[in-house]
Design brief:
- The complex is a heterodimer.
- Chain A has two domains: 177 residues, no CATH class; 186 residues, no CATH class.
- Chain A contains twelve helices and twelve strands.
- Chain A starts with a helix and ends with a helix.
- By secondary structure, chain A is of the alpha+beta class.
- In chain A, strand 7 and strand 8 form a beta hairpin.
- In chain A, the strands form two sheets. In chain A, strands 1, 3, 4, 5, 6, 7, 8, 9, 11 and 12 form a ten-stranded mixed β-sheet that branches.
- In chain B, helix 5 packs across helix 6 and helix 6 crosses helix 7.
- Chain B is an alpha/beta fold.
- The longest helix of chain B is centred in the C-terminal third of the chain and has 18 residues.
- Chain B has one domain: 3-Layer(aba) Sandwich (Rossmann fold), CATH 3.40.50.300.
- Classes of the chains: A alpha+beta, B alpha/beta.
- Chains A and B meet through helix 1, helix 9 and helix 12 of A and helix 4, strand 6 and helix 5 of B.
């Protein structure tokens, strides 16, 4: 309490300094929240792709270009393939041009490899789909918000009505923003997206745009991907490392930029703490002299000023965290209508931001504190 | 001015019981050399000859020199050759014109400032060559300070100001509170404990400062113009209070003052001029 009272003797300046830290932590929390969300998506993807091979049309992996279902039978013949799931994944809103994070998708598959799937999907309500559930959907947890629907309700996807039979628990990665349906339903919706010329030439029931290959036990997915590329024409297969290289690598750069900006903001806040504490030491030179005259040791003077700068960091950190959380929550609420959920303020980000702010306060207070402690008591006393 | 300088002979008031404080011989005795430093023993030291026989030297300054260098060829010799000896339980005034070096001497005796040459002894221990840490230790346990401008921490209450000194001396928050309360009772400010300095009169602020100086039971309390900012009534109260403490606890007081009225109440008066104690070495 005494430290706080002493600190707030120069209220405006201390408030401004705290505000400087607050802005820095706000930036760190908001940007970090974005990075955490992205990180989870990537982690989920890394985990999902870790034990399987993804197959797309030649040269167009991840682009969702059409592929013939007959390729699945060719792939099944490759040595080391346990099963192939064929499916269609496409944007829920066909006019989405660019997206931050995972855009909402609809996803239909023939579910043939379901028993081999290691990625856990749990149902919050209802049940999973079977190939017989034509006209039914399972909603990812974020899609519940979009459709405002529960199990048994009817939702409209691409102008068609579907009945919700299940709702997934949040996974904090891709499935949260997906609508799962049977392959025939997905084929019917997907064919609308194709250019008219192509649409007339393809057989709707033969149309897929991705395949997931489950290796037999003991088969290295990377080796299997290479083998598929060698033996099956017109497809491109990729193992787990492709995802790592293409997506995770990009995300690493993205995160570095995001955190870099936030750290610069905090660094500026730290400079302002140094400035404030140095001014405070200068203004209180006489008080420091008195404190030394009545017996304060160098260490006690250092402790006093470090405590003050640490408190500036703490208050700035906590208020920055609160404002960051508020900003992220409001932004997510506003963007909800556009199906964007950008931020994840994880406990480690929250605790890390505040701890970093305190650390910054302490480090910034080091020079002024030692300067104060080294003052000759009598010179400090004479200071006007 | 001459009336002040005329009081060159140290006034000496016999103090009841002071002779009983300590009868141990000082380190000056023996072969005429200083026992620890080899420094010549100043046989002619008037403070020694004028002091009550058999008392213990609590402070001794020997040929102290201090030069403040402001720049090349720009310096002030604050102390040219100052020597004095003060005995335990004495009430001492140091007088002299502005710039005569009395505050510098006080600061050096109180371990707030360093000297260039010479020696300072506090209660039989040489203190002019101690480390920063040892000096801080001395300041918190052995000496107390009172200033002309009181120098209380403005955002702290009276109690917290006194507690600060006790906490620096290693007391816990609770112990410091008890000790600070006792010290404020001693200076008659028990009912003002929760007041901030701005809510107190000058005399009351100085009493808080005295309580702060007292709280760690120091051997010596140094006062740099302690009544300089007070009206005559408050000034008289403060002087009376210091005398009471001096008599009750045997604490030595060394007061730099311009006020002959304050000096008159003291046991002895040292006069300074041009960085020397004039009724010391050369009297």
């Amino acid at each position: 309490m005494r430290t706080l009272r002493n600190l707030f003797r120069r209220r405006l300046r201390v408030m401004l300094t705290i505000f400087g830290i607050t802005i820095g932590v706000l930036a760190l929390v908001v940007m970090g929240g974005m990075a955490e969300k992205m990180g989870l998506l990537v982690d989920g993807g890394t985990k999902y792709y870790s034990d399987k091979v993804v197959v797309g049309a030649d040269g167009t992996l991840y682009s969702g270009a059409p592929l013939s279902l007959s390729k699945a039978d060719e792939i099944r013949k490759v040595d080391g393939v346990a099963e192939v799931t064929s499916g269609i994944g496409a944007l829920l809103d066909p006019d989405t041009t660019m997206s931050f994070g995972m855009p909402p998708m609809f996803d239909g598959s023939d579910m043939r490899g379901e028993r081999l799937e290691s990625f856990p999907l749990e149902y919050a309500k209802g049940r999973g789909l079977t190939p017989a559930d034509v006209g039914c959907v399972v909603l990812g947890s974020d899609m519940v918000k979009r459709f405002k629907a529960g199990v048994g309700d009817t939702v409209t996807v691409r102008g068609e009505q579907f009945t919700v039979v299940g709702i997934l628990e949040p996974t904090l990665t891709a499935p949260d923003t997906e609508v799962f349906m049977t392959l025939p339903d997905a084929q019917r919706l997907f064919i609308q997206d194709l250019p008219a010329m192509v649409r007339n030439q393809v057989d709707q029931s033969d149309l897929v745009n991705s395949m997931t290959v489950y290796p037999t036990p003991g088969t290295d997915p990377e080796v299997l991907a290479a083998r598929i590329n060698e033996t099956v024409d017109g497809v491109e297969a990729m193992g787990p490392s492709a995802f790592q290289e293409q997506i995770a690598g990009f995300m690493g750069i993205f995160n570095a930029i995001i955190y870099g900006i936030a750290i610069i903001a905090l660094f500026v806040g730290g400079l302002s703490v140094i400035n404030t504490m140095t001014m405070s030491v200068n203004e209180r030179t006489r008080e420091i002299g008195v404190r030394k005259a009545i017996g304060a040791s160098d260490r006690q003077i250092v402790g006093q000023f470090l405590t003050e700068s640490g408190i500036i960091g703490l208050i700035g950190g906590v208020s920055g965290l609160f404002l960051g959380w508020l900003a992220a929550t409001i932004a997510d609420r506003v963007l909800e209508g556009r199906n964007l959920d950008l931020f994840l303020i994880s406990p480690r980000l929250a605790i890390g931001s505040v701890v970093f702010a305190i650390f910054l306060g302490l480090v910034s207070g080091l020079y002024p504190s030692f300067h104060a402690a080294r003052l000759q008591p009598v010179l400090a006393l004479r200071y006007e | 001015m001459t009336s002040i300088l005329d009081q060159t002979v140290a006034t000496q008031i016999p103090r009841p019981g002071s002779a009983a404080l300590d009868t141990a011989p000082t380190e000056w005795e023996g072969n005429g050399r200083h026992a620890r430093s080899g420094f010549p023993a100043p046989e002619t030291r008037p403070s020694r000859t004028a002091a009550p026989a058999g008392t213990r030297a609590i402070i001794r300054a020997v040929n102290v020199k201090k030069r403040y260098v402001m720049g090349e060829d720009n310096y002030v010799d604050a102390l040219r050759d100052a020597s004095l000896e003060i005995h335990a339980g004495e009430m001492i005034a140091v007088m002299g014109p502005s710039g005569s070096g009395k505050s510098t001497l006080l600061h050096i005796l109180g371990c707030l400032d360093s000297l260039d040459t010479g020696e300072v002894w506090l209660d039989g221990r040489r203190v002019d060559d101690l480390s920063r840490r040892a000096l801080a230790d001395l300041r918190r346990n052995e000496v107390g300070f009172i200033f002309q401008t009181f120098n209380l921490v403005p955002s702290f209450t009276a109690l917290e100001n006194v507690m600060l000194a006790a906490e620096y001396a290693g007391k816990s928050r609770r112990e410091a509170r008890v000790a600070a309360h006792a010290a404020l009772v001693q200076v008659g400010l028990a009912d003002r404990e929760e007041h901030r300095p701005t809510e107190l009169s000058g005399g009351q602020q100085q009493r808080v400062a005295i309580a702060r100086a007292l709280v760690n039971c120091p051997k010596v309390i140094f006062g740099d113009e302690p009544t300089g900012n007070l009206d005559s009534q408050s000034s008289a109260e403060i002087v009376r209070m210091m005398h009471d403490i001096n008599e009750d606890t045997g604490t030595t007081f060394v007061l730099v003052t311009h006020d002959p009225g304050v000096a008159d109440t003291c046991d002895r008066v040292f006069h300074m001029l041009d960085g020397r104690v004039t009724n010391g070495h050369h009297a």
